[in-house]
Amino acid sequence: MSSARQNQILLSAQLSVRYAGKQPVLRDVQLEIQRGEVLGLVGQSGSGKSTLAMAILGLLDKKRAQTEGTIRFQDSELLQLSEHELRALRGRAVALVLQSPLSALNPALKIRTQLREAWRAHAAGGTTECANAIRASLQSVSLPADDEFLRKYPSQMSVGQAQRVLIAMAVMHRPALLIADEATSALDVITQSEILALFRDLNRSTGMAILYISHDLASVAGICDRIAILHRGEIVECGTTEQIFAHPQHEYTQRLMAALPRILPANPQLQAKTEAAAAR
Amino acid sequence: MNSWQKLACAVLALVLGASLAANLLAPGGYAKQYREATNAPPSHAHWLGTDDVGRDRFARVLYGTRISLLLAPAAALLSTLMAALIGGLAGYLGGTWARMAMAVTDLFLSLPWLFLLITARALMPLNVSPQVSALVTFMLLGFLGWTAAARVLCTTAGSLRSSDFVRQARAAGLPGQRLFWVHVMPNLRPVLYAQFWISIPVFILSEANLGILGLGVAEPMPSWGSLLKELEGLVSVGEEPWKFVPLILLVVVVTSFQLLLSRQEGVAA
Question: Do A104 and B165 touch (CB under 8 A)?
Fold first, then answer.
């Protein structure tokens, strides 16, 4: 491997995870994420996607989950780090956005408190610095940063706004890697497309790599540079988005592509009108 | 808040207000003896008569109410804080910590409560001052009354530990103690409020029970328990009905707390 390519690698994992007395959740999964790329991780429910995300963040229950292998991130071997060292990386170098924004935000805390806590986890400074950081992160996700908004509780916001707040929390410290674990699955189609566009903008403007975990191929196609297919705890195929969609190699990937919904295949005239309307 | 709960609030405010104004309403104080009028019936000078050593019963009811209504919430606060710390922290830490805390809780729950209170109270020196006896009685109630609430809080904190918002906060790099104080504790608040309100009438009644047994607040300081002790020697209900005022007041106050409690439970749910 050339040193230039080596320098481009942000995260390199070779990993197996097993819970005591059960079948392995991840079997020798090999994954590489380049700096600044958006990698899609696709698989059906229970295939081990979230386990992989939690393993990268060091959030698997160490007493129950047995993790073997390596996770190389920047210059650190994550599986060798202490909890204290991992905590220093979480939120600062690797951030997470979960699926359901309304359950991922604390219902008992105002938005200002939640953002302030996220900032204080990795920054020391006064009220002014904190307020400036909160304002900047909210503006980066196109949310208002006024007092009225910051006084709101999660239940007083729309799902889309809540998801943007979560993303603002995640990007506050400009992490090198953002893990979006089914981050658009709970959203309606319009909000989903807005959040995908936001991820794309953040990726382009900050150079932050994104591990975009989803079972929704359409959203993955809209945002990812490369896609890895996870099936029963194994990466069965990994390639560029074009390769995966145009020439799927593995049988499971082919089944996934075949299962993609086709818009109005039985009515070409209506399809043509729909496409024309979309083009307008 | 329905009309019954508004009435309960008004009753409690009235009773508490009157007890706090005891110095004005009964300037003679609770200990002054009117030797010339022992066991006197109600009169203009003594609205509820006097007891067997000539002390004004109205003054004693007011001062006794003040002690119960101020110290029972203090004991409830102590037991609620202990439950929050022991149960909440054990539930949040989980694993061995939770098992150890629940073992201690089970031990406390299996102790004969009243017997323990009587023993602890009996161990105190006989010449202890009335103020100290009042404080110790209610603090003992608070110290022994945290267990059931701790069990509920342990379970609630355990489920919060695996919630999405705690996982998200951990992923943001928050340290353990911030997760507990900032993210877990505010979500235990409704349970803590309910527990606080449940404990107040329980402690009022417990003190009354101890007082009847002569193990509550020491003489000459009055409390509802020591006032109810007067009813021991009563032969007929109709003979001296004014002696029932402390009992009626106790029932009214405890009922008012129970009515308010149903609202707190609604908030907690």
Answer: yes
